[in-house]
UniProtKB/TrEMBL annotation:
Keyword field: Lipoyl
Cofactor details (free text): Binds 1 lipoyl cofactor covalently.
Task performed by this protein: The glycine cleavage system catalyzes the degradation of glycine. The H protein shuttles the methylamine group of glycine from the P protein to the T protein.
Organism whose genome encodes this protein: Clostridium lapidicellarium
UniProt similarity note: Belongs to the GcvH family.
Superkingdom of origin: Bacteria
Cofactor(s) recorded in Swiss-Prot or TrEMBL: (R)-lipoate
Lipoyl-binding domain ranges (all copies): 23-104
N6-lipoyllysine sites (modified residues): 64
PROSITE patterns in the record: BIOTINYL_LIPOYL, LIPOYL
Pfam families attached to this UniProt entry: GCV_H
Record gene name: gcvH
Protein name: Glycine cleavage system H protein
């Protein structure tokens, strides 16, 4: 299972990586895409939508199942990965390169409440 250097993880298998100040990218983890199988659809939120930590911001659907996406921290969507509309399978190819949304975090101190790579790997080993 691959993780992303410098990223934080949720127990629901989303990752978030701060980029510049309060800007961060959000996607699903390698563990999640592998568990879901071939992804056939990604439901993206509208740009400028605001979400609280833990709120559903979208969904991914695979040939096996559908899974809600949960916001790792509170924030406002500033960009969505439009390439996933026509090519949702890109998430299977590289879930870290093919982020789902880019947000402006409203409270980046919430990152400290998430899992680091080591603790995330331990979580996945238990599943």
């Amino acid at each position: 299972m691959k993780t992303l250097e410098g990223a934080f993880y949720t127990k629901d298998h989303e990752w978030i990586k701060a980029d510049d100040g309060n800007k961060a990218y959000v996607g699903i983890t390698d563990f999640a895409q592998d568990s879901l199988g071939d992804i056939v659809f990604v439901d993206l939120p509208e740009v400028d939508s605001e979400f609280e930590k833990g709120e559903v911001f979208g969904a991914v659907e695979s040939v096996k199942a559908a899974s809600d996406l949960y916001m790792p921290v509170s924030g406002r969507v500033i960009k969505v990965n439009e390439g996933l509309v026509d090519n949702p399978e890109y998430v299977n190819q590289d879930p870290y390169e093919n982020w789902i949304i880019c947000i402006e975090m409203s409270d980046n101190s919430q990152l400290s409440e998430l899992l680091d790579s080591k603790n995330y790997k331990n979580l996945c080993d238990g599943e």
